[in-house]
Design a protein that fits this description.
The protein has about 325 residues and is α+β, with helices and mostly antiparallel strands. The protein has nine helices and six strands; from the N terminus they run βββαβαββααααααα. Strand 1 and strand 2 form a beta hairpin.
Length: about 325
């Protein structure tokens, strides 16, 4: 089985390990990797919630021309994420068939497996980082010289303590909580994970009942991190991971909140429901040994009115929405409502 972020499925319980390659790409290049347009390539799977954070952040900040994008097949083989969506099964920039090749050029016998998101140094073909917790924060704060005009501040300095606190709870109970429930190997572990998950969702619904966004009156990194789990909730976590006390569509506040974000440029235009469903239901063979991918849920509801604008808030603050999705990065019709 596999997951975008580093994960371990031990006999005792599900554990997510820290990223092994934690070099940072910074404005001053202090780790040896300076921010530079065109030097790096972001490798993602549209199926992976951890990688989807980077997709959303890159779009909102307008980094498409500065940081090129490689999209892996949602179905892995025994060598990890593969580039079978590209002609001849090779990434056209890196020239490799599997993301593991970039990892191997950096280090052999590395722990933690091959995960996305990953940023690769194009000239050397070596992995720079797979630190899914840090990548988006650095895109927001270290890549500012390459941000588009009108890019939002996704990690405003005056709100960072509150953002960090909210993100910590979301990570522990929601982002990671769905996996603890889905990969639980005993009833008590499952019950505890599921109870904790839905209690946190209820608290988040209370928080969002009178405010449009999680922190402040604009979109921040906290919203990105919650969105990438919520957008997958009914499609895979409710059934596949048994997180089924209720569907997201049955919670008026969270369903409206996630639709609001989905309909905001930079969010929904990165989501591929086809990739999401095929990855989870076909790759996690221990949970779904038949590999059957369900037909539902129906998707048109994602485009229905949400009325969240009545709460106020300014999605991009003093900035502007991102421009159109580059044609080569558009989500195919089968993955959209």
């Amino acid at each position: 089985m596999s997951d975008g972020g580093n994960a371990a499925y031990g006999r005792k319980s599900f554990q997510r390990s820290r990223a092994h390659f934690t070099d940072r790409i910074t404005a001053d290049g202090r780790d040896g990797w300076p921010v530079a347009a065109g030097r790096y390539r972001l490798v993602v799977s549209r199926a992976c919630p951890w990688a989807s954070r980077a997709l959303v952040s890159r779009r909102l900040l307008g980094l498409e021309d500065a940081l090129s994008l490689a999209i892996a097949d949602p179905i892995q083989d025994d060598r990890s994420w593969r580039f079978t969506l590209d002609p001849d099964g090779r990434d056209p920039v890196l020239g490799i068939r599997h993301l593991s090749e970039a990892y191997d050029r950096r280090e052999t016998d590395y722990p933690g497996g091959v995960s996305v998101p990953a940023i690769v140094d194009v000239p050397s073909g070596r992995l720079v980082t797979n630190d899914y917790q840090r990548i988006t924060l650095d895109l927001a704060t270290e890549w500012t010289s390459l941000h588009r005009e009108g890019a939002p501040d996704l990690y405003p300095e005056e709100l960072r303590d509150e953002i960090d606190s909210v993100m910590a709870d979301v990570y522990e109970d929601v982002n990671n909580g769905v996996y603890r429930a889905g990969f639980a190997n005993g009833q008590e572990k499952y019950d505890a994970a599921c109870a904790r998950l839905f209690r946190r969702l209820e608290l988040l619904a209370e928080r969002l009942s009178g405010r449009r966004y999680l922190v402040g009156d604009t979109i921040t990194e906290a919203d990105i991190r919650l969105f990438t789990t919520l957008v997958r909730f009914d499609a895979v976590y409710h059934g596949h991971f048994k997180c089924n006390r209720w569907k997201l569509t049955e919670n008026p506040v969270l369903w409206a909140y996630v639709r609001d974000l989905y309909q905001t440029p930079g969010f929904g235009d990165t989501v591929d429901f086809d990739h999401i469903k095929r990855h989870y239901y076909r790759v996690h063979s221990g949970i779904n040994p038949t590999g059957i991918v369900p037909l539902g849920p129906d998707l048109p509801g994602w485009l229905t009115p949400h009325h969240r604008g009545e709460l106020g808030g300014r999605p991009f603050g003093d900035g502007t929405p991102p421009g159109p999705v580059p044609q080569a990065e558009e989500v195919p019709a089968r993955g959209r409502p």
